[in-house]
Amino acid sequence: MLPCESVRIYLDHNATTPPLPEVVAVIADVLTGDFGNASSVHAFGQRAKARIDGARGSVASLIGADPNEVVFTAGGTEADNLALRGAAESLDAAGRRHLVTSGIEHEAVLNTVKALERRNWSVTILSVPPSGVLPPEALRAAMRPETSLVSVMHANNEVGTIQPIADLAAIAHENSAWFHTDAVQSAGKVPVDVKALGVDLLSLSAHKFGGPKGVGALWIRRGIRLVPQLTGGRQERNRRGGTENVSGIAGLGVAATIAREKLATSGAKIAALRDRFESGVLASVPGTAVNGERDARVPNTTNISFDGIDAESLLIALDLEGVAISTGSACSSGSLEPSHVLRAMGLPMSRTRNSLRFSLGPATTSAEIDFVLDVLPALVTKLRGLGRRVAVVR
Amino acid sequence: MRVVVAMSGGVDSSVAASLLAEHGHEVIGLSMQLYDQRASPDAFGSCCSLDDLHDARRVAHAIGIPHYIVNFEEAFQRTVVRNFVDEYAAGRTPIPCAHCNADLKFASLVERATGLDAAAVATGHYARVDYDEEGGRYRLRRSVDREKDQTYFLFSLTQDQLARAMFPVGHLTKPEVRAHAERLNLAVAHKPDSHEICFVPDGDAAGFVERHLPDEPHDGAIVDATGREIGRHKGLHRYTVGQRKGLGLSTGSPMYVLRLEPDRQRLVVGSREELGGTTLTASSVNWISGAVPDAPTRVTARIRHRHQDAPATVEPIGSTRLSLTFDTPQIAITPGQAVVLYDGDDVVGGGWIDAT
Q1: CB-based contact, A190 to chain B, within 8 Å
Q2: How far is B215 from chain A (nearest CA, A)?
Q3: Cβ neighbours of residue A193 under 8 Å, at least 6 residues apart?
Q4: What is the pLDDT of residues A28-40, one digit of tens each?
């Protein structure tokens, strides 16, 4: 039996979010009613196609884009892969094979960049100051004549900091390099406008804002030509082969519509709860500090280090109390690794191991925050006492 | 009672966790990730130990307990792997599993358990622990299944650790454990036992040592007991005491490794008769009772996991060392291995063999 079955508090919305009821409804609706293959000529196919077209319009509206520039993928990772690999392959011919990214990127970008490095691209990975915000000057200094591609995330998944994308993209463009941003953690949480950001490629993922898993999108500015990475049928205008995930795409569309409607109000409400939680922890637990800049952040995220504890232990102890949170990265087995993001921000090794991420959602309640503020100090005290005792014995 | 169970993904710890849950304990499964399991970035295939962690997770889900994979990579590297390589470099033949239990597993798990308010730590080891009212001490005892007994790897447990330890399969035979697994419909019921060293899955310990110590000498003399050179060896880490095969000698009679001399990079070989020894000294000694015997004591002693313990007299040297004399010569007493002392089924203590 799981302990505390009565209490389950979910503060891990940067990992994934519960699908909205409207999303669940439309997915069920498509699966039962509009099961056709969107490539089919007949009425079944047309209805499926209409579902996809509707969703494309919704996603485009969320990011201020033209629907024709949106390509659906099987999630944020595929969108990042299509953006970077597709761009690199397209840019290969011109011979400018240098790309710049930041050390705080999601692994979907970092590991794709490393794969390109093994294909004779030279790569610069920029470290970031402890603020968690990449200074535009750092990018400027890294640009070379042969730099043709820059990828910097919009909002960081671990600390929530928002990068100065418009400034960064302008620097890339001065050098006629393409600019990609991974907006998986910002789309649906804060306003994202591709024109205001001035980017060329933008990735987003449905399940980070109330949509289903396994579906995402890449926005490709008109004029940017990518080489397709999934070859097959002519779906997505030859940009991504494979029978469309119609129900998932419809779910993404509904999630995008709802996110857009609520953007103006939901952010401030979540930020107020987050700030209350954060100051509550800082006040009640000594030896705590917030990682990264506190102003330029997505409203739902806080990343806090707890001196003298092991993040993994605190995470498990909280889970046994019914509180779901996370640390930075999990490795292939599911166990935890020191955060590469905090390391790239130049934080000491100890802090990469004692930091926890709390990410709230639209449904997070004040009572839930109170509960966590209530149980957290005692758990930290117990784990700290343990560390000291063991240290003395050794 | 809240109990932390160390789940390896094998049948023994899976049954241990299941039995505790059946008995109404609040069981928390922990699996330890001990070394880097990332496959090479360019290719992927099946990684056996990663599969083991997934097996543990599946079992935990099937029996309805929370399960966490905890990362001990750094500590494992620092204690077990480092020690393994250093021991080979020092001309000894280590047993990493015993070091892992001694230096890492129990200490770490007891600490984690305390942090999680768990009263006990259970593993799937074949061993028994009980409290001796008379002596006021915890006892570590051989498992009911003598063939499977793993007390040889547990000699370093302290009274504090034994007070928190549970070995739920120690009262069962291996066939009984498998029968429980079948009854409970566990996916691992027919999984074969693992024998290899977990971080050397290909069994090539010498290759592993060479990758970690590329400067280790790869050549030296093979001499007989009189010091006469009769061949060349390929690096001392490739040999262990008692080894006969792979020496590349063309003497008339079979020759065995008698000892490794790292100072002179020499391998000393001789006949099977010369391989027998009666005395040894050991260090890092742990006395299970927590009290060092104040006089020479009669015990039976094991010098390898697969060694039938033999009668001997042990004499403590201070609190952390011992000397031991067997009644009759024992084959291949090997530095780096453990000597574990028994009084009937009770483990008296043990230590790491230094010299013969």
Answers
A1: no
A2: 29
A3: A63, A64
A4: 999 999 999 999 9
CA B8, B10, B16, B21 dihedral sign is positive
Distance between the two ends of chain B, CA-based, in angstroms? 46
> B151 to chain A nearest CA, in Å?
24
Q: Show Cβ contacts of residue B337 under 8 Å, excluding neighbours closer than 6 positions.
A: B93, B94, B95, B303, B304, B352, B353
pTM, two decimal places: 0.87
User: pLDDT class for B39, splitting at 50, 70, 90?
Assistant: very low
B45–chain A Cβ distance below 8 A for any pair = no
Domain architecture of chain B: domains with CATH: 2-183 (3.40.50.620), 217-271 (2.30.30.280), 276-355 (2.40.30.10)
Q: In which band, very low, low, confident or very high, does the pLDDT at A333 lie, cut at 50, 70 and 90?
A: low
In angstroms, the separation between the Cα of residue B25 and the nearest Cα of chain A is 9
Cα nearest neighbour of B116 on chain A = A317
Q: Do B69 and A319 touch (CB under 8 A)?
A: no
pLDDT at A95 over 80: yes
Residue B113: closest C-alpha in chain A? A313
> ipTM of this predicted complex?
0.83
B302/B350 Cα distance (integer angstroms): 9
Q: What's the mean pLDDT in B248-262?
A: 88
Closest CA to B311 of B283, B278, B352: B278
Contact: B115, A336; criterion CB under 8 Å: no
What's the pLDDT score for residue B251?
Answer: 76
Return the active site residues of B: 100, 198
pLDDT tens for A142-179 read 999 999 999 999 999 999 999 999 999 999 999 999 99
pLDDT range class, residue B36, cuts 50, 70, 90: low
Domains of chain A listed by start with CATH number: 9-18+263-393 (3.90.1150.10), 21-258 (3.40.640.10)
B24 in reach of chain A (CB within 8 A): no
Q: What are phi and psi of A147, to 5 degrees?
A: -75, 120
Mutate to test the interface with A, among B116, B117, B158, B161 (most CBs of A within 10 A): B116
